């Protein structure tokens, strides 16, 4: 019974450690996905202001474009610090980071050059090129997000499996411990009954 109890405690401790590790990995994956969304939103904002300035020439849109240019690197830096599926930070530069960098450089170039040109056709061509870059970038981020969702699904499935196994082991252990306890109690009761009967027979023999 004591050995069984020790085994149950050991299994429970190991399961809790593993579950804690899995929960941390799931949280990290959620942070990675959130980071992807932040970066895509920043680049989309830059592209939107870039398109608006190229088509209208409004100075406020150029200022907004420059602001988006300045905030995007911070989001990229934060994303690089997050662990990937391997447990290590994102390698530099990852292919998707190069895409983001290329898009931001293009938007910066088109915004600055649009400030000095009045060629409407050229501006329209640059806006179209920006749309192509964003389409490619969205496809890349969709793939990245899909990979993270699949990773989280596997981790969550493993976490549920550990939970069920731990529950089954604890339930079985509780039942076995109870069985051992009642078996020991029965043996003690039987021994006490046998002793009482022996004493009664001995007293009866002495009286006769």
Uncertain segments of ≥5 residues (pLDDT<50)?
Answer: none
What does the largest sheet look like? Answer: none
The topology string of helices and strands comes to: HHHH
The helix/strand class is mainly alpha
Give me some keywords for this one.
single chain
What secondary-structure arrangement, pairings included, does this model have?
Blueprint: H1 2-56, H2 59-80, H3 95-114, H4 120-207
Explain the overall architecture.
The protein contains four helices and no strands. It is mainly alpha-helical. 89% of the residues lie in helices and 0% in strands. The protein has helices spanning 2-56, 59-80, 95-114, 120-207. The protein is rod-shaped, with a radius of gyration of 35 Å. Helix 1 runs antiparallel to helix 2 (59-80) and helix 3 runs antiparallel to helix 4 (120-207).
Compact summary:
The chain has 4 helices and no strands. The chain is mostly helical and 208 residues long.
